[in-house]
Write a structure and sequence with these properties.
This protein has 218 residues and is α+β, with helices and mostly antiparallel strands. It is 39% helix and 12% strand. It has a single domain, classed as NADH Oxidase. Helix 2 runs antiparallel to helix 6.
């Protein structure tokens, strides 16, 4: 059993009390503008943005501080095309055979189907993997919770940079490991196309639940 880690002073949180509410209001309003985008422009992603967004994501808390995540950035057009072809094959099976009628009915208003052009239209993909126990990685704890938090950080960072994203989970996703050269103990969690919205991009006119539906005080 490893010994206790060294301790150091906690970071200072020096936001004046009177600035706390305006800051969180600004962040909430900014994040409320974030929408899932399915039509991307070919405009390149500025240098360094994906790397720094991953840096932000990798600051997320994790069970036992194991940090059980891997972020695979895919910008090569041929690799993105291969991801799209494999994803569409799985998605075709999902829509045609695997999905229940109830699930298909829930998806119908959004107009989605097995075609996934955003996987090649977006100039970059970030494929996030869960890292489980392997030759060079310890047993992780609370893997999905930890990786989910990191993905939230990643989406917020990319939005802050003015980039659009989509969280895509082809079902199943096992094909991504061999396709991207990842070992068996890394399991796909989500594919995130990243880029700028196409000039004619649209999003569904949806509303979010009111605060009273999601906040409970006890």
């Amino acid at each position: 059993m490893p010994g206790p880690v060294d301790r150091q002073p906690a970071p200072t949180y020096d936001v004046p009390a009177e600035e706390a509410l305006p800051r969180v209001q600004e962040l909430a309003r900014d994040l409320a503008r974030r929408r899932t985008i399915r039509e991307f422009a070919p405009t390149p992603i500025p240098d360094g943005v994906l790397e720094w967004a991953v840096r932000a994501a990798a600051t997320a808390p994790s069970g036992a501080h194991v940090q059980p995540w891997r972020f695979v950035v895919v910008e090569d057009p041929e690799r993105r095309r291969a991801v799209r072809e494999a994803a569409e094959a799985e998605e075709r099976e999902f829509y045609d055979r695997r999905a229940s009628e109830e699930w298909l009915d829930a998806l119908a208003p959004l107009g989605t189907d097995w075609h996934k052009p955003f996987l090649t239209d977006a100039p970059g993909l970030v494929v996030v993997f869960e890292v489980h126990q392997g030759p060079d990685s310890p047993k992780p704890y609370y893997v999905k919770e930890s990786v989910g938090i990191a993905v939230g950080f990643l989406l917020a960072a990319l939005h802050r940079a003015g980039l659009a994203t989509l969280t895509h989970t082809p079902s199943p996703m096992r094909f991504l490991g061999p396709l991207l050269g990842r070992p068996a103990h890394e399991r796909p969690f989500v594919v995130i196309p990243v880029g700028y919205p196409a000039p004619d991009a649209t999003v569904p006119a949806l509303t979010r639940k009111p605060l009273d539906d999601v906040l409970v005080r006890v």
